[in-house]
Predict the 3D structure of the following.
Amino acid sequence: MARKKKKKYWDGRKVLKENPNARYIFALGGRSCGKTYSTLNISIDDVYHGKGMFAYVRRHRENIKQSKIKELFGPQPIEELTEGTYNRISYWQGFFYFEKWEPNEETGIMERVLKDPEPIGVAVSINTWEGDKGQDIGAAHGGFKNIILDEAVTGINYLQDEFQKFKNVISSLVRDRTDQDTKIWLLANPLSKWCPYFPELGITKEMRKEPGHRYTISYPDTEMQTVFDYIAGDENDGITKDPVYDTFFAFPNSSAKSKSITGGFWELDEAEHLPSQVYKNSVKHREVFMYFDEEWIRGEFMRYDNGCYYLVWTPASKLPKNSYYFILNAVPDKYAIVGVRTGHPYADLCNKFYKTGQVYYSDNTVADMVHGFMKEADKIVR
């Protein structure tokens, strides 16, 4: 009987060893490949040896509630990492603490026998940080050695000006320890091909083409670097490689209920879909294009035989001659529509269909790209 090949897990320590100047480490890979486990393991080791606290960051406050976060450290070998001093990490009112639990000699029931009164870490949410931060929570405890943003890439649920908000979190956490080599980890499943962190950190489209590659991004006049690690899938992780055809998927434009599954695709079962037969029995009313992240996308305003109108976005290889197109920057072209609030008839149509939910996408990547464009275009006020 053939021996099953052992699953490989991502190792953040190896990244640090090979990239000592890295300040940002962006790890993009499928679920259960070890990203969160490895970064938390490093954080526990660092805080126990006096190198500084850690901050576990999520986008929304609901993700750092007691019920959501109490099992975060369950898989960690805490007793081994703390040389037998502690064996649990508790979470209370936004802070993490080392504890030791042992069985009662008479009842055998586990009870706490030791708790370090000093917090070792904190959980914060980007969307409520400005109102919650109060006093500096790290300066009195050695500053912050590791800041971990989990689920950095999402579908359509980014915050307005999210990167700036995240920078504000970082600035508040490390402001009194500017000499400290804080590591900022951004962890994500390969759910999206675009997110606001990519352009800000210099992560290009070319870097996101094929998993299994690690890139180092350097910046002028500084030794600071970003490492982008696009983790390859393991042959035992059950990732499906086949694309989905013959269906146009409709994603909620406001509730953001789409979820990722193992392998990084969108949760197709939860998305209302428009069968291809409906598309085939529709008549194209108008056509417009969109240019974003070096990609062309075609938008077709369709009319179904029951009189219902909708907009469907599909990939496009190029821009046909004399075609209107949406773009984020002004160009000397009468066919260019800058942003989506220009008053142009096509822009008004797009906004109308988005408000009524009559928007569909040929595949998950196109959906992701369009949502990314709309997020950026919403910042343009003309």
Notes: Residues 235-245, 253-267 have pLDDT under 50 and may be disordered. Residues 35-48 form the longest helix (14 residues). The CA atoms of residues 54 and 121 lie 5 Å apart.
